[in-house]
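@channel anyone free to eyeball this complex?
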Amino acid sequence: MYLETIYSPADVKKLDMAQLRCLAAEMREALLQKISVCGGHFGSNFGMIEATIALHYVFESPQDKIVFDVSHQSYGHKMLTGRKDAYLDPARYSSVSGYTCPAESEHDFFNIGHTSTSISLACGLAKGRDALGGRENVIAVIGDGALCGGEAWEGLNNAWELHSNFIVVLNDNQIAIADNHGGLYRHLQDLRDSDGKAECNLFRAMGYEYLFVKDGNDVEALVDAFTRVRDADHAVLVHICTVKGKGYAYAEADKEDWHWKHPFHIENGLSKSSRVGPPTYDDVGRDLLLEKMKNDPGVITIVAGVPGAIRFTPQIRRQLGGQCVDVGVSEEHAVAMAAGIARRGGKPVFVTDCSFFQRTFDQISQEVCINDLPVTLLVRNASVLGMNDITHLGIFDIPLLSNIPNLVYLAPTNKQEYLAMLDWSLEQTGHPVAIRIPKGAMREAAGPVDSDYSVLDRYQMTARGDQVAILALGTFYGLGEQILAGLQQTLGISGTLINPRYITGLDREMLQELQKDHKLVVTLEDGILDGGFGEKIARYYGSTGMRTMHFGLKKEFLDRYDAQEILQANHLTASQAVQDIAACLATI
Amino acid sequence: MYLETIYSPADVKKLDMAQLRCLAAEMREALLQKISVCGGHFGSNFGMIEATIALHYVFESPQDKIVFDVSHQSYGHKMLTGRKDAYLDPARYSSVSGYTCPAESEHDFFNIGHTSTSISLACGLAKGRDALGGRENVIAVIGDGALCGGEAWEGLNNAWELHSNFIVVLNDNQIAIADNHGGLYRHLQDLRDSDGKAECNLFRAMGYEYLFVKDGNDVEALVDAFTRVRDADHAVLVHICTVKGKGYAYAEADKEDWHWKHPFHIENGLSKSSRVGPPTYDDVGRDLLLEKMKNDPGVITIVAGVPGAIRFTPQIRRQLGGQCVDVGVSEEHAVAMAAGIARRGGKPVFVTDCSFFQRTFDQISQEVCINDLPVTLLVRNASVLGMNDITHLGIFDIPLLSNIPNLVYLAPTNKQEYLAMLDWSLEQTGHPVAIRIPKGAMREAAGPVDSDYSVLDRYQMTARGDQVAILALGTFYGLGEQILAGLQQTLGISGTLINPRYITGLDREMLQELQKDHKLVVTLEDGILDGGFGEKIARYYGSTGMRTMHFGLKKEFLDRYDAQEILQANHLTASQAVQDIAACLATI
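replying in thread with the prediction:
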């Protein structure tokens, strides 16, 4: 077995072409075993095996610097750079992250997880090299799906200006997470169809030397191409055509399904865990959207490369036709386009994961909110219970979104409330509305929920007591109920419980009324405290005698954490909170 | 005179070609008179006169919808759509904004001021039209300088997928605010050099029908081209070559200087107000940067299309060579590139206006802050005293930036402190640092300032009193001094004054110590209160007996405001604040 002998890229260079092909097979086998147990990005890694081998065969990492876009395709790179045991030894499977990580290896230059960044990051490495007199190669690896992202375009445009060594490897597997969309892909097809010989070539037109590798899973052809561009003194783009999921028939046959795969049975490709569970907020949100779209051609759902965010399967998307727009990883365009649709009288909904809303702050603020257009934004995975990779955290959205004028940011606490808010948002024309989709097991409403949210910033008092009032936002409403019960049990206090519903404004009337017979107001929010909801309450009461306490997360980048541990560390369990409240009450 | 007879685009259509040429001359004359008095975007408007006439001659606005990118070139459009008096009658000069504005006219569809948005917005209008069964033309006007922006690329890619009427007018005047940069511009030159006949054509490659108008200041040629594409059932791009500043020799000769022009003498083009005033924070910051760059090739300044933000004249840029990188309006790339430079051991500085940092939140958070790289961000015009157009406000940066982990956001209060912080930031390697450049008349330090800011979150107490402590952030430090004096005069209170310096963290030790002999802590910040600095202080003291008051701006979009009025409205004058503090103290 060759893979077991690879401790660094130097060991790759010792092998001949036939041995490299064996190595590729061994790497696929190791990946298959590991992903079948742990889950992970399947298709991109299987497709990039030969290119990864060839890169490390030709270049001298870490002196030569390879930057992987998103870096979800870097599993093979990790195997060849001293981390093979994380793929060969089940006991060490969790010793590496799913993305490049400088803390793991000198061969990794950035923690990356968002799309379309590699060219710009590599351009910076090259610029630094040139300024400091270095001579190494700098290589940006980017997929076809990421090339439509604006940041990639900006980088591609500017990197040419380096007039020095800069190598882009365009890994064209003809698909993003789902299908590619847009005129760029028409052009990439022209290039593929002509074996790279088309007279019109975007990359050449922009000043890049251009090489085409028809079979990007042929290690020898790749070694040849990379050898030709090594030490180039100008910008080069190597266009390699690979097969996503290469080498595992099920993955090759259904590339979208195998983009990211949960643990599965190797023999038949079937998932180990049954996917049939109780319906989730994603499911019921999708169902309502589908119903609305069916009844109203003006309702248009926009996704940015991740249609799974709203559970739109390929079949659903086909049925929806033009009412579902997948813009590719183009969040900026998605939001600006939504503004345009709303301006024309349509009812646009843009849905994506919390972390990706960060990519389009300016469009939300300028195109949507300054123009006060009725755009609906569905913010998914906004929770400490959401994705837990450092690059995909869902705990920063409240400071990001809730401080933009005109935006109404809603935090539903259960299924019926979520659906009522979504329905209302689609039918109202007053303001842009963002909805923080709850996370965790879906809750049912205890009673009727409002259908009209147009009178802004009206909190809902669900239990009226005295002394202590708990404002429990969104997903943490359940925690609020537990704390309320805990206060009763432990301290004999019948407190007040409030579902604030609106993140973006204060119910001054209710807050003022609390001053009559409460001495402490407690806020709970499922995100960082800095810039968040609780601080607005703290400011409101600052000049009064009311005491306030604020439970939420510390401002920090977490990585691959255990949610329960983090909740505990931030005193976000009912028993801890009750204890803290008791301690505070003792000082008043 | 024709212009006086134009009450709507219908009146444009009554004129023949010779008359349209006269109209163009009259429009230029009106613009010349107005801008010479009021200042404004000169070059783009002069260049776009014929195209604007031709658009309104051929299309049926407002049913047909024209979206102007940035909309800084929409002065001519306003003249032809019922707003001529705002250009002909000096008494009405201020009756229109410098950008499109739906509140002014049904011919304006969006408040716009940021770059590269028109294609995406127009794509949304077209998508809405198609969904709702409309048949109008949708036209996006965009400049060559804006085309390198990522959002424009995302829109260009996706709009083709409409497969319906969509017209892009690319106004290629061969310059942005300053020179264009990047491989795209090499390609545009190929297209111009070949009169649009180059075999390789990016736009055709992406599926667009392509028309080339060699003289984009020839109204007849433009009318012909627009007539050919009117009612197209697919995506079309009309590439028109115009002369920025066309028709005024001084502006044609120095296009960068005449991009935006202060009031000037028509006869010689000289500015009416002498530019020689006392040095500003921009000047001294530039001088320090130049010195650092001269002594250290690793110091690299990045600008994104607005080199004026750091007062880098064309001459300075030529001298700096590769140490100054103008990436064009590509803020995302600028920040990601800075991350790469820092990772390679360089010392990158990215400087732009506050409002444009909104365009790159994700890159700051992900590429820079997750990787904790020593990038310096200079945040300019972050103040209520900054730009006052609704699209360029500098009052939202504290919630945006100060809640990102790892980022150190500093608020200097005077010249020496600003320079010391900038110097320190460039030489340290611990964290990313953003500096909120003070605004207003430059202040000198009263005493020595620290040179080392690496022990984070240490506030500076500049006057120790009791009862009331004032935390006066950045530009509002002077206001803090006035309030301190007012408290003494009015209430006989010798308060405490603190320069917090760090926006991103709390000096818990100092805050705790204040509890000994203070009963009220007051915060002052030059930005919106929501998600800002004061709220962090409010949260800190929430559970204690300390009262807090927070002075800053209300969360709202302001437009073309008088700063003094806004300060007054937000109780941000010393006398108002002293009165409010007295009222609060009376309740304690």
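from a first look: The domain at 281-436 of chain B is CATH 3.40.50.970 (Rossmann fold).
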